[in-house]
Amino acid sequence: MFSLIGRVSFEERDLADHRWEIAYATPEEALQRWLQELLLDFDLHGFFPVTTSVEVRPGRIAAVARGGTFDPARDELRSELKAVTQHGLRVRRTPRGGLEAEVIFDV
Amino acid sequence: MTIEVRGLAENVWEIPRRGGMRVPGRIYATARQMAELAADPCLQQVVNVAHLPGIVGQALAMPDIHWGYGFPIGGVAATRLADGVVSPGGVGYDINCGVRLVRTRLVFEEIRDRIPDVVRGLFATIPTGVGAHGAIARLGPGEVRRVLERGARWAIEQGYGDAGDLDHTEEGGRLGGAEPSAVSEVAVERGARQLGTLGSGNHFLEIEVVDEIYRPDVAARFGLELGHVTFLVHSGSRGLGYQVCDDSLAVMGKSMTRLRLQMPDRQLACAPIRSAEGQRYLGAMAAAANFAWANRQVMMSLAARTFERVLGLSPREVGASLLYDVCHNIAKIERHRIDGGTETLCVHRKGATRAFGAGHPDVPTAFRDVGQPVLVPGDMGRGSYVLVGTERAMQETFGSTCHGAGRVLSRGAARKAARGRNLVGEMCERGVTALAHGRFALAEEMPEAYKDVSEVVEVMDHAGISRKVAKLRPVGVIKG
């Protein structure tokens, strides 16, 4: 998702953690709401995540994103994402026990 | 799945009613365009829209149709106020994305050499691109809500333009029924820094020259003269509008189960117009529409000042005056003739432009005897059109026509096609000075990524829905 938005070059000292706790009814809702939060954090505060992790619990996810503040003078902008859509939104278990997701953004 | 399509007349096609469709679909397109659409999922979207409760007439598609969220872009659907629904997918994320065309007294041949300077001035003055902000000071939440209430008038009260501009703006630049309290705090926060910003994607500010005139009498009424410089602003409600759409989809997605509404596609989340959810969306959407009108009003004024500063001319010498401002992503409550009577309808126009004919009371007084100006931007290499609405549009399309060229290449495919090319140089060879922020902005928006807008407007002209008045040739563009 953020590779569509831009490319950054942060130093380790620039990085901070942002955290979210999100309630959900379906895995798709969890994914969409979390990505919406990430997009909003970028739009409002310029927070650009470089690594993320999610702990999935029944009815709730705990997500952490590590990143820095986007600097237009230093970093590269690519595309504006308007929204994280529900179109074709899918989350499924892989045979090896992981999670695989498909999401379409409105650009 | 193959969708049955049959020809009704030259360039007019019907998808017959079947299954849960409440009305047939109707598509305006050439035979060649229809052949290209045969395998396109947007035809299924026309079928899906025909399932909306309370839809009347036909689920309409203009020749610039392409796939969109829920509704196709280039789609029009009218639903009865009494028992119909309103769908945020029928408006789109960028609420009141629209276009305004500004005329000037400048003659292109006299300032031709200064166009690159003007483009650089515009690029420095009007924030473009992802997350752009800063054209005017960040607004507090209370001030944003005043913008949502007052629309373009708010901008004029701050010194951006003059009151006469409102007469040349659809709905006077302020859609009635706006409910700023229905707009979330997050949406307000997203809008606080973005007033007077162009944004990215297909948004642009373009300097254009009146290149061809097809109806001299109407062009004269529109104040368009061959060889004169105009500029076109294409933008919308920015992050505020996106958030209103997101918030509304979440609410309606949940209420559909309670209201027992079933649609073939969950992107067609909707609510009865008269329900609390429907009214709340219409109020928030109108507020976002007003933000968009204020946004375009501010940018028009900033652009006019830039022409004056760069060329060293007075406001009178530049003579920037608004021809018209139209929205092409909106749902509006309008009266239309249907089945021999007149009914109040909610007309969804998603990537479609209002095109009211002569005599309609909503057409500005200055143009009422000829019809509403319709602005159809093309791609940045091939230019744009000024059309005029017709009575035929009132009879066939709820007073609607096409809105642009429509994409033929996805953004990814366009980037791939542009790899290794010097697009700035190519545009320069076409006589267009182009500046953009984003690395891929020019690649994604290059001319071959779009259908030929001439073919699109020709279909609607031939069908008598909107008539060609003038063609504008681009000479300078800034993009996000």
Topology:
The complex is a heterodimer of chains A (107) and B (480).
Chain A: H1 2-5, E1 6-7, E2 16-23, H2 27-45, E3 47-57, E4 60-69, E5 76-77, E6 83-84, E7 90-93, E8 99-102, E9 105-106
Antiparallel strand pairs in A: 1-5, 2-4, 3-4, 6-9, 7-8
Chain B: E1 6-9, E2 12-15, E3 25-28, H1 31-37, H2 42-49, E4 55-66, E5 73-80, E6 85-86, E7 98-107, H3 108-111, H4 115-125, H5 141-150, H6 152-157, H7 185-192, E8 204-213, H8 216-221, E9 228-235, H9 238-258, E10 271-272, H10 276-311, H11 315-318, E11 321-327, E12 329-338, E13 341-350, E14 353-354, E15 373-376, E16 384-389, H12 391-396, E17 400-401, H13 411-418, H14 423-429, E18 433-436, H15 441-444, H16 453-462, E19 466-479
Parallel strand pairs in B: 3-4, 18-19
Antiparallel strand pairs in B: 1-2, 2-3, 4-5, 5-13, 6-10, 7-9, 7-11, 8-9, 8-19, 12-13, 14-17, 15-16, 16-19
Helix pairs in contact in B: 4-10, 5-10, 7-9, 9-10
What does this protein structure show overall?
The complex is a heterodimer of chains A (107) and B (480). By secondary structure, chain A is of the alpha+beta class. Chain A is 21% helix and 42% strand. Chain A contains 2 helices and 9 strands; from the N terminus they run H-E-E-H-E-E-E-E-E-E-E. Chain A has helices at 2-5, 27-45; strands at 6-7, 16-23, 47-57, 60-69, 76-77, 83-84, 90-93, 99-102, 105-106. A 3-stranded antiparallel beta sheet of chain A has the order 2-4-3, covered by helices on one side. The longest helix of chain A has 19 residues, at 27-45. Chain A is globular. Chain A starts with a helix and ends with a strand. The model of chain A has no long low-confidence stretch (mean pLDDT 92). Chain B is α+β, with helices and mostly antiparallel strands and 480 residues long. Chain B has 16 helices and 19 strands. In chain B, the strands form 4 sheets. In chain B, strands 7, 8, 9, 11, 15, 16, 18 and 19 form an 8-stranded mixed beta sheet that branches. A 7-stranded mixed beta sheet of chain B has the order 1-2-3-4-5-13-12, with helices on both faces. The radius of gyration of chain B is 21 Å and the shape is globular. Chain B starts with 5 loop residues before the first strand and ends with a strand. The mean pLDDT of chain B is 95. Classes of the chains: A alpha+beta (107), B alpha+beta (480). At the A-B interface, helix 2 and strand 5 of A face helix 7 and helix 9 of B.
